[in-house]
Amino acid sequence: MQLKNPILGLCQQSTFMLSAAKVDQCPDDEGFEVAFAGRSNAGKSSALNTLTHASLARTSKTPGRTQLLNFFKLDDERRLVDLPGYGYAKVPIPLKMHWQRHLEAYLGGRESLKGLILMMDIRHPMTDFDLLMLDWAVASGMPMHILLTKADKLTYGAAKNTLLKVQSEIRKGWGDTITIQLFSAPKRMGLEEAYTVLADWMELADKGAEAAE
Questions:
Q1: How many CB atoms lie under 10 A from the CB of residue 19?
Q2: Mind listing the UniProt keywords for this protein, alphabetically (predicted)?
Q3: Which architecture does CATH list for 6-212?
């Protein structure tokens, strides 16, 4: 019998916790956090909502609407964090600089941050923002997993080719520690693979094994 991933139940019961404009407004720095990052309109909110089976993250046809660090509680020890969307031209420069300053403070100083999920639109992967995040993850030793979102917008063959191409680029430039997969929120493609990564980072993988005994 195939066991249900232990992260699944937690994601299904996730609730909004708080929004923080600055790092000192974040929850206590303890337990396990996984942050979701992505260039504006990369499908970050849709991915979060699909993974949690809820409408936790607000989706918008106007990119760049996520302007705060949004925390979602899975249990008393574990949280998901929706980071501000970046790179949209219509956002005023001072606001962009505010986001960048506080994002860097959060990423660089958060002890409970166990990994970063980076969303890339499969039709426009490896943007300047993506490259910066890859550089940061490798330099800081932060685990990173990439979701190539909107994979349903391409045929399966074209999506697979893009996956292999981006995977090859990342290995050449950043090594083989960063993992990557295809993902589609509307088609619910790639959920199991993403849940496995979350469970591992949040140290839930062992709980599934214990349940099997």
A1: 14
A2: Cell cycle, Cell division, GTP-binding, Magnesium, Metal-binding, Nucleotide-binding, Septation
A3: 3-Layer(aba) Sandwich (3.40)
